[in-house]
Amino acid sequence: MKIHSTAIVDKKAKLADDVEVGPYTIIGPDVEIEASTKIGPHVVITGYTSIGKNCSIFPGACVGTIPQDLKYKGEESLLKIGNNNIIREYVTINPGSEKGSETSIGDGNLLMAYSHVAHNCSIGNGCIIANLATLAGHVFIEDKVVMGGIVGIHQFVRVGKMAIIGGCSKVVQDIPPFSTCDGRPARVYGLNLLGLKRAEISMDAQRSLKKAFRVLFHSGASLKSAIHEVNETVGHFKEIDYLLEFLKGSKRGVCRGDRAQMSAD
Question: Are 80 and 61 in contact, with CB atoms under 8 Å apart?
């Protein structure tokens, strides 16, 4: 291990042999860090936190500090971070707020400077969370989501896979998968066509998604009626089935287009 002489690493912490720890970093007793991970200077890693392989954590990040939740009374809760994640300067990540609960971050994510992940959040794989973006408690982010700078996401919101949220957006309802969203509050503007292409989604499925999006988010119909119409008129590709199941499972309501948003769900 390459641990700087000014770093404070608790003897009970479990670090792989090749972990690097920079100057003035503090690592607590219940932390586990796997191989090839590099921790920069002035980082704090504490709590029941596990960090996977080949991660990079930049100066000033606070990882595993107690939740910003007044209901938290010191229970043992978890933070689990996967492999190949980049956590930039002054990012803050909190564990769960109830005993045994957890915050989880998958593999291959980029959390840019000053972004915040609150208690009991779940982030999938391959996501980009830009500078100053903020996740409240119990937010669920699926795979390959791109979130612009200074985005604020309300507690218990879900963001579907391959969605893009424009900078400075206010997100108070679920963001549909495959969508591009923006605004205060956020609205659906269209499909993430570049994301679909990169994911090698078939052209037939993309055409069906375009048709489904027009009906679901821009027709002015209620969400229930729109889902029924899509079921009856749009081909049943797996992407369509997944989209409809996501919408049916919404508890906070779903961001829609300007016309559809005015119609009762």
Answer: no
